[in-house]
């Protein structure tokens, strides 16, 4: 994306090499390992919960999907930018098919994490405020269906991106552009109203409102069961911090590639600015492990069990039973 704004000669070549070429690859490696570890631990907790006849939890499912799409997202714009900087030719410049796929999956994997994190926050808030919701709706089976439905809806909303991109007369590949005026107008509207306003601003407002409502409920909640209260508090704080980090790290990128793009594209060092905003976005996709490992009791013990090949459904003394309710 931002390569189209780049000067022919980098303004700060060393800084650009680190920000655009090296750090994205580090994020891909670290983010993949951390997110896959989170997915395995969350899946094991859901499975162990069913084995022990505890009430299943839907929040786990949303977090599993969040970690998965964050992992896939690391390999889109992030990897394309890194390869382009290190080799002089990005993936999107090598093949028209690759160009179209990255156009679609790049935005697709930016939109899904926002929605899944929003759903996890809303789900937790409703569980605190409504016992009926907790009994009837907050179930893994329902959450799986909702996540699949969300993924299907975004396929429909984002699929027109596959029509962008074409091979020019000189043989070069022009990504995110089209000779069709209608598609160009649709893409411009998509970037502003769907990508920025709806998927960023509206979703962020919902996250903030849900977090505030969860805090209010926790303050008013009677401490009849101290363990349950602390568990709810810990998970709610974790989701609130995840939302705050996601908003702070992704909003600069949304603004740089939409309303601020005309101001930045001709400025000195624009290449580094756009790359840095991309890097912050994908840093947000790599922080799930940090929040889960700090906030979820027994996370490290469960993760350790992965390496010593213990069955998560066993009743061995010392295995943690704390789960996301």
UniProtKB/TrEMBL annotation:
InterPro entries in UniProt: GPCR_Rhodpsn, GPCR_Rhodpsn_7TM
List, alphabetically, the Gene3D superfamilies matched: Rhodopsin 7-helix transmembrane proteins
Q: Which residues cross the membrane?
A: 17-43, 143-166, 186-216, 237-260, 280-300
State if Transmembrane helix is listed as a keyword: yes
Where is it found, in Gene Ontology cellular component terms?
plasma membrane
Topology within the bilayer = Multi-pass membrane protein
**GO terms, molecular function:** G protein-coupled receptor activity
Q: Which UniProt keywords apply?
A: G-protein coupled receptor, Membrane, Receptor, Transducer, Transmembrane, Transmembrane helix
Where found, per UniProt?
Answer: Membrane
- Keyword Transmembrane present in the record's keywords: the answer is yes
Q: Where is the G-protein coupled receptors family 1 profile domain?
A: 34-292
Pfam families, per this entry?
7tm_1
User: What is the name attached to this protein's record?
Assistant: G-protein coupled receptors family 1 profile domain-containing protein
- What is the organism of origin for this protein? Didymodactylos carnosus
